[in-house]
Amino acid sequence: MTPSDRFISIRNVSKSFGAFTAIEEISMDIGQGEFFSLLGASGCGKTTLLRMLAGFESPTKGEIFIDDQPMSDVPPHHRPVNMVFQSYAIFPHLNVGDNIAYGLRKHKLAAARRAEMVEEMLDLIKLPGYGNRKANELSGGQRQRIALARALILRPKVLLLDEPLGALDKQLREQMQLELRALQRQVGITFVFVTHDQEEALTLSDRIAVMSGGKVLQVDTPAGLYETPRTRAVASFIGTMNFFRGTVRRNGAAMAAIEAEGLGTIPMTTAQLTKPDGAPVQIALRPEKFSLSAKRPEAGLAVEGRLCTSAYMGERSQYYLSIPGKAEPVAVSAPNTHRLMGGHDLSEGEALWLSWSPESIVMLDTD
Amino acid sequence: MSSYIKRPNRALQVYAVLFLIVLYVPVLFIPLFSFNDSIYVRFPLQGFTLQWYGELWTREPVWNALWNSVKVGLVVSVISTVLGVMAARAITRTRMRGKGALVTFIMMPLVIPGIIFGVALLVLLSRMGVPLSLYTVGLGHLIICLPFAVATLLPRFEGFDPSMEEASADLGENGWWTFWRVTFPMVMPGIVASLLLTFTISFDEFIMAFFLTGTDPTLPMYIWGQLRFPKEFPSVLAMAALILFVSFALVFLAQWVGRKGLEDQA
Fold this sequence. Notes:
With 367 residues, chain A is α+β, with helices and mostly antiparallel strands. Chain A has 8 helices and 20 strands.
């Protein structure tokens, strides 16, 4: 690990409010210039962790380092971080320019230099000439940009964002996601982004920490989280996932397989499977890793199932098939590039073959 | 058929009008008789005169009493509003035990009879050997005005997003600058409303002043003193009419400023 990989270092941090534990023993590192997301359902502790980075809450235990400096004794107004609040917190009594320049008072700049910096920021957030607008004349998207500009003008080492896109409607949110990502690349500042929207986290982030119940379940790249989730909780939080219980079957040193409910015996390499014979395992398969066909494929793993129900979702369809030996139906996702089976729509009760490759199987921790 | 929720109710309208009449018509007799050309307050009216207002104008003690009331009112309104700001901020911004009980204690003077507070303060002050003066009147008024200041300011503090102050801290300002650059301008309408309201209350207050006044009377005390002299009565009415007018104007102004501020913030 290089020092810039530990730009923010969270060491054994816990936080309790009275009897309630909001954060439990979190340790992780965030690299310089990284777009890092804290992802989790509400109440998972992600906002508390962000507020500890900002200095609005102090850890009950543990220490947070930013750029190698311990932060416990540094109050919010002396930390090298700035925050974009969920409500944006645009000062209603100041115009746009004064809002953006708010943090510059101590810099004792000449009026001309100050105005120039504000204009630069307004250009950066694509609101040139908005300096004299009143705060209450702004739309949600504009407020969000101004909150960004107000924080970025101070050139913080870290920018903290607390669900900044949550209040925007879907279209504007998607546009702002792209802009936010581009902006982060442009300014090169480390972003720590809190969200409960898994799609948003996947789109924006270099790395994501999935949180639940005050703990970090997994820290990984978006692709890593999606393709190789470590636990069932992470797998089900991000996207749709099919879970199968199974048992390890070993026959000598070279051969290993999993006997999985509904899927039969799946041969595995010994590298994939390290557990002893007879050990219970939990495996998972994403819906799009299955293929559907009317006839049994000539090679490979396949089982026959019946279509329970399907959902047409535009570019793809989601099918739910019941297979013998498994209680819950299996979700299968197929693109609608050519509608399946020579164009005829699948009808409920139809018999179909499900096939998959062993590499697409995800082994989960059985805790 | 409209729902009963929006249907106008004739009986309630009549009741509302009667209510306002009973409330304000007696008060309207005061300005009415202050223009009456007779020292007796009785019908029929004798004719229009400004004589009583003229007499008022030339009477030195009236001006002294007025000035006393203004002095006490200004000091009391400023102090109670400052204390009110601190209390409202503490109540809305800090996590503390027994907050509900604290608010109840702050509001208590609203329901404790003024005569009890007046007697209690008089006993205490005379035991301590503090001479009665405008300062002791001010102290009494402060107790009465503080709940009004808190009640006026509390909604302002409750209505504004605590992340505003956090944003200021996050942008590098310490507590002092955050207060002057964010908190104060945002609660300003509440502060103005509180100043106007507490000034009016102090200016009109009688019971506390009755117990706690030394040799310098406030205006209500002066009026009380004049009631013993029948021939002074019309000019007392003239003065009462003026006080009534100024009080109404100040309270309306306070309400208007308070409401306008809330609208701007929304």
